[in-house]
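My current task is to audit a protein record that another person submitted. My question to you is simply how this chain folds and whether the C-alpha cells agree. This is what I was given:
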Amino acid sequence: MLQHKFVEFIPEHVEEGILYISIEYCTAIHKCVCGCGNEVVTPLSPTDWELSFDGKTVSLYPSIGNWNFACRSHYWISKSNIEYADRWTTRKIKEGRKSASDAKEKYYSDGEEHTLTTLEKKRGFWSRIFGF
C-alpha cells in the first residue's frame, strides 16, 4: 500500500512507500515499488496519467510500466494499493510506446489550441484530479 501526500513541490528526498502529488505542477512521483530505488515520475495530463482521489485513497491510470529501469516493473496504483501486472515483452513495450505517441499526436493535432481553458472544457480540472 502507498501513502499519498499532496505537496506543492516534490521533496528533494523521495521516501519509499509515499506517492507525492503536486496539483500545482500536474505531476506525481514515487519510488519504484519493486524496491530498486528508482524514482518514478508520472505527469498528470489528458495524454499521460490520470489521478483520482476519493477523499481517502488515490489511483493512477493507466498502469505504470518502468520499461527504462533494469527492473522493468509493471503495476497499477489502485485505491492506494499496488497491483502487480504482467511483465511486457520488448515487442509489447514498443507497441505500447507507439500507441501512446499516436494518442498524444492525435490529441494535440486536433486543431484546438490547448490552453488550460480548453483542457478544462474537455474535462473539468477537479474532475480530472479527483475523479469526479
